[in-house]
Amino acid sequence: MSLSSALSIAQSALLATSKQTSVVSRNVADASSPDYTRRIAVVTSTAPGARSVEIQRTANDLLFRQNLSALSAWSGQSALYNGMDQLDLSVNGVDNASSPSTAIANLQKALQLYATTPSNQNLGASVVDAAKQVVNSLNSGTKAIQDFRTQADSQIATAVDDLNSLLSQFQDANKAVISGTRSGTDVSDALDQRDALLKKISEYVPVSTFTRGDNDMVITTKDGSTLFETVPRSVTFTPSAGYTAGTPGNTVYIDNVPVSPGTADSTTADGKLAGLLKLRDGVASTMQSQLDEIARGLVTAFAETAPSQPNATGLFAWSGAPAIPAAGTLVDGLAGSISVNAAFDPSAGGNPTLLRDGGANGAAYVVNTGGASYSDLLISYGNKLDQPMAFDTSAGVTVSSGVSDYAANAIGWFEGVRQQASINAESKQALAARTAEALSNDTGVNVDQEMSLLLDLEHTYQASAHMMKTVSDMLDALMSAVG
């Protein structure tokens, strides 16, 4: 081997070692970044002993796809469970203190007390006050639910804007990857950025990806809608200014294809958008329907009856008074419009003794004609709250029951779906953490390993430097001998 060849080899080794050291140093510097993928400097030897360095990423496509799926499931489940927690507190209060079930139980107690002393008008006024609390619970619950739906709608609009922004950023990163791949430059940073954006996109919708020539990536949703192909596809949504009971929410469209909130199961969701859609149009709407059915049951249970006369509204009134709502049929918004009949309310000039005697709808409906101790009508009202009646099964509670039990069953239904949503959230959070850990272990940076590699590179550098010095000394000696 000539001295010039030896010098060239030594210089090549020094350059390769320098590049390797730069890669390892970068690994150590970005070890704490969750979106950084470890680089490897692969050295290739060429004749006559020269070296070239190629930088590669330690990517694992299978683990990465699993992590994207887990992130999407956790994001959707988290949005669903957190929304349910907010709904529970807004509608039912702490420990169900402001729930219709609690208010109806208090109404039953007031009725029982009035029935023991029917001549005491103060006790009659207490029943009316208890009825007002029931009405307030239903009215405020309706407002809380519709406010929640409006808030969820606003969050959907924000999520759509964020998703469109992420897709635009993804386009820039994808272009950088394609351009670098075509020119043969290192695209590791652009690939890291693209993967980081994919993680964020998957939090909004579950995604699938495939890579074409020049590392060009295409993104589709789990159900096949195209999110990105060369350019971002539009994600559109028209928010609503406000909601009322029974009002359907607007749909989110990806590339003009409607986004589905998922299966009919109210306890699972994939992606934040699906979770918010399910909250707005699923859980919250079902809760509203249950409140409406409770209100309809109350109007029916306290209706005044008379021979050859149609049943007419009694203690509880609604927009269709004096008629009674049809049996077993949901009336959207009834819980928001139900009120205490002014004929019974002392503060509105009414007479609470009509509860004992009947007659709020005229003489034909009078039951008691003078007995101050008459309590049969009061007792019958209390019994009707416990008597099974027909409820609309679309409201989610299918067990045959009276109004008071239906109100309790509505709480039970909600607590059931909330508990299941909590269990799902915990399991999906654990899965997301495990897949992220597995991905990090496989593609992330182990600082101890990198520091050990740095020591090896230092020794290699020293050897190459020593070789260069030896060759230089030999050349100097040769030149001196020639001179």
Description:
This protein is of the alpha+beta class. It folds into 2 domains: 3-58 and 447-482, no CATH class; 65-208 and 238-432, no CATH class. Helix content is 58%, strand content 10%. The chain contains 11 helices and 13 strands. It has helices spanning 3-29, 61-92, 100-116, 121-183, 188-204, 272-301, 334-337, 354-357, 376-384, 403-443, 447-482; strands at 39-46, 50-57, 207-211, 217-221, 226-229, 231-232, 235-236, 253-254, 257-258, 304-306, 309-312, 316-317, 339-340. A hairpin with a 2-residue loop joins strand 8 (253-254) and strand 9 (257-258). Helix 2 packs parallel to helix 6 (272-301) and helix 4 (121-183) packs antiparallel against helix 5. The longest helix is centred in the N-terminal third of the chain and has 63 residues, at 121-183. It is rod-shaped.
